[in-house]
Amino acid sequence: MKRLGALVTALTLCICIGGIGAAQGWSLAEAAKPYAGTSIKAIFLDRPGYKAAAKLLPEFEKITGIKVNTEVIPYENTREKIVLDMTARGGEYDVVLTDVVWIGEFASNGWLVPLEKFYNDPKLADPALNLKGFFPILLDSFGTWDKKIYGLPFDNYAGLLFYNKCMLQKAGFSKPPATWEELLKVYAPKLTNPKAGVYAFALQSRRGETQSADSFMRMLWPFGGSLIDPKTFEPNLLSPASLRGLQFRQDLMKYMPPGIVDYDHNEAVNALAQGKVAMITEWSAFYTTLADPKSSKLGNCLGVATEPAGPAGLKGALGGFSYGVNAFSPPERQAAAYLFIQWITSEAKAKDYVRAGGVSARMSVYKDPAIQKAFPFTVPMVKAWEQGNPIFRPRFPEWPEISEVIAQIGTEMMLGKVSVKDGAAQINAKVKEILTKAGYYDGKKPKLQ
């Protein structure tokens, strides 16, 4: 979680120096000439950011002669697909999609090529790459491991509060709740009508990464809690602050729809879009879905703000992905993959990407008043990113195993099969076991990334 600003500055200077000679004549078309006719493969998700990229792909293919084949995979199956390919050294996916919590696993196993190999090559490196133009928290969190950059931020999220302005106004509220406590005690009772099938809030909580990250972890940071104590590296769910956040989630459940533990992102977004709930905390990328009259009834009733603050302040969720290069792909496909990644994440394409429905990691694009007006979610999103919030899911390679533990016991908590305190104790014990086995307490592994 260390800030890597100095590293980014040094790398940027290196790129600028290396690109001086090429700055006059470098072009994507010229850089791609040796790879014209090459086909590469990238993983896409069924989300707005990837649909936006798909709209831009023909331009890249026309300029470069490189064919980008895409495979749309459900998020839940993505890591498994990548891991199977990597362990077999198959090189099927040249452009590797890496979640914020997979970067440690992928990089430490040698599955990704450090991008310095490409951006220090003046034949491949666009002199306008400008690593300092990315939001630092996004480049550091999604693309950097052990002081090396393995990916460029592509599909980027901040947790936001989406709400139905008309429902809130009807209940007597002129603005959204500023704090979680206000949401629970003031807003929720007035916005919930079980007989009419209308509820104040929906927290996507389906068992899996949605439960462990979007539901469970979301309630720790704002209340001052955490999965791991950053000083001792001991499991921290039995701390008063962590228990306060998890108990808050239980208290809020009576204002959520029945079966909330089966809600994934689509179910939560659709509940708001169809007027079944008044508020959700969801990723910024879902704004386009909620604003689309084909999928949403909200129209002018759609409101968006930062997530509510907790006793520890504004600690909204942070999520997203980077695109990196498969270490087992042939050299020509690696180079072609890098050219695509560099282009799709560039400052030059940022506005096109945002207008097509994506969320860019570039700071410059959100300074444009026209973008702010057309996409209101960008203002609270930028505010959340500029807060420099901690990564609310640990990035160490053992996260997938820990996530499964949280998903199971966190679901049992919500269903009342285990108390909050007992569930927290169970997760603590299992996390300690996983981290001990991995060598975090005997000096074999660094404790924080």
UniProtKB/TrEMBL annotation:
Keyword terms: Signal, Transport
Pfam families referenced in this protein's UniProt entry, alphabetically: SBP_bac_1
Keyword field contains Transferase: no
InterPro entries given in the database record: Bact_solute-bd_prot1 (IPR050490), SBP (IPR006059)
SUPFAM superfamilies associated with the record: Periplasmic binding protein-like II
Keyword Iron attributed: no
Similarity comment: Belongs to the bacterial solute-binding protein 1 family.
Name this protein carries in UniProt: Extracellular solute-binding protein family 1
Natural source organism: Allomeiothermus silvanus (strain ATCC 700542 / DSM 9946 / NBRC 106475 / NCIMB 13440 / VI-R2)
